Amino acid sequence: MRKLINAPADVVSDALRGLAAAHSSLRVDPGSGTVVRADAPRRGKVALVSGGGSGHEPLHAGFVGPGMLDAACAGEVFTSPVPDQIIAATMAVNGGAGVLHIVKNYTGDVLNFRMAAELAEDEDIEVATVVVDDDVAVQDSTYTAGRRGTGATLFVEKIAGALAEEGAALAEVEALAREVNERSRSFGVALSPCTVPAAGTPTFELAEGEMELGIGIHGEPGRERVKAGTASEIVDAALSAIHADMPVDGAELLVLVNGMGGTPLIEQYVAYAAAAEWLTAHGATVVRPLVGGYVTSLEMAGCMISVCRLTPRLTRLWDAPVETPALRWGR
Amino acid sequence: MRKLINAPADVVSDALRGLAAAHSSLRVDPGSGTVVRADAPRRGKVALVSGGGSGHEPLHAGFVGPGMLDAACAGEVFTSPVPDQIIAATMAVNGGAGVLHIVKNYTGDVLNFRMAAELAEDEDIEVATVVVDDDVAVQDSTYTAGRRGTGATLFVEKIAGALAEEGAALAEVEALAREVNERSRSFGVALSPCTVPAAGTPTFELAEGEMELGIGIHGEPGRERVKAGTASEIVDAALSAIHADMPVDGAELLVLVNGMGGTPLIEQYVAYAAAAEWLTAHGATVVRPLVGGYVTSLEMAGCMISVCRLTPRLTRLWDAPVETPALRWGR
């Protein structure tokens, strides 16, 4: 294990202390593993709460701030946050207009967010839930009934966050979040495994010269293990799988080429070049590109491609100002 | 080699094609390896040109845009850009007010930028040069007479870029760039080597359980190889070396905790927590923190810490708006 950590048991709380020290725009409680906008609760604004296992940074805490999430709950590495965290975050950001839970589709996450939503209803907080399940690689997986939630989570959080910031009602924000999820697809490829600190051994073995197509963000098995290909071959595999599930020809796309944590930016841009060419050749237009490590899997090498079929409204909301540690732009 | 690339010889030009496709704010010429602000030349504005070997992304091309660099020259991986690239970039951005070359202190870079500056003078373009040499780890190195230029390059480019944007004259921008370099120090630690694509073998060997203190950004040897430590021990080694060279007590600091390319963000925040605590305990105040992979070394695991002793003027210029692929903030 070549990790920049102290004790394996302290990774998440140490990282949260670092987040707190680096970002005065956030209220971080390393003890409970919750990260909240410093100006929460915002009276009359629908609040967005997400969360999940740690190890995917900047997802989710790096997306807390004006124009995106109101709060994030950080579970242990690759482990769902517990209901207590979720209800604490929900109550901290409730501004009286209801709270939207954005949940990646993993069994533990879905269950714990549901329990927290029930507790919130007991407190007279209206909660709506959207489950993100964008990963086309596998139908069910190690930790999932149905498809996994991966890169499109960022799209849902940004676009729904922008609508909430404009003052839309809970039902409208919920419907939009669902729409973004339905219009989005992802597919990931691993060139190396990663190691959960508390486990100390890699999540899987991958021989030199092999890669795993359709990998999840926790090292879950994908579709198949094949001979490692070039960036263009990897991108072709990912985009072909996406296109087979949701045709992209004629679409205006938001495209994320996402580094998985151990793949440097220069390689992500190599992959983006191939993706842009593939999509153009298949009749799609990339109108909003994003390249970087936004939904990672510890130090796993590889990349994930996520696409969203935009509408003029979705494009406008994507472009709306956002002010978080990991995504930041103005008018 | 677990790399997301096509042919090793095409890595830089493929990545530049990706950069061009992803950022319409840039004019990228993958053939010549130059990246220029789309609105260049800016009449009457001092232009900033930097560059160096590729493999350190987002440095330098990711810092091209309003408030920072006017152009960057991308050499082959870990290889200095050639004078032809530098003169092409210099001429492309010259707005009549002179051009500042920001050069990391490596022998090849210094030599090639000097040749380009002489060619520019023949074209009646006034060029000033600032050499960045912030790395306290070693006095001379494999590729350097004197100290290496590493993380402070980002500080120099951002702060001098802000002053140039305000309309300051060349001599003033040059003096400020020099001041930022003189007030900055860096120290890096590697937990793994990296592999130059064209070479195919790691830059050095590091046994499991070892780390290299004072590593350069090209896998050059550092000060010593020791037993791998905790994040707190690594941060203590880095900050102790910096503090011994430039005391930080009583200072208001800009601090970068920089991932080297293969270390994920969660670990960078673990390191930042330790750095913030160390600095507070030693009487420094961190007024501007930055955490992320900004000056990388391909997929090397580890981190570098860079600090700059701010003045009110430097803080104001650091805060000034910037609009580049990798650094972006508004007023």
TrEMBL record, chains A, B:
Q: What is its EC number?
A: 2.7.1.121
Tell me yes or no: is Ribonucleoprotein among this UniProt entry's keywords: no
Could you state one GO cellular component term attached to this entry?
A: cytosol
A Pfam family (short name) is Dak1
GO molecular-function term, one example from the UniProt record:
glycerone kinase activity
Q: Where is the DhaK domain?
A: 7-329
Q: What SUPFAM superfamilies does its record include?
A: DAK1/DegV-like
* Claim: Kinase is one of the keywords in the record: yes
Keywords attached to this Swiss-Prot or TrEMBL record, sorted alphabetically, are: Kinase, Transferase
Q: PROSITE patterns, alphabetically?
A: DHAK (PS51481)
Which GO BP terms apply? glycerol catabolic process
PANTHER family in the cross-refs: TRIOKINASE/FMN CYCLASE, TRIOKINASE_FMN CYCLASE
Q: Could you tell me what this protein is called?
A: Dihydroxyacetone kinase subunit DhaK
Query: What gene makes this protein?
Result: dhaK
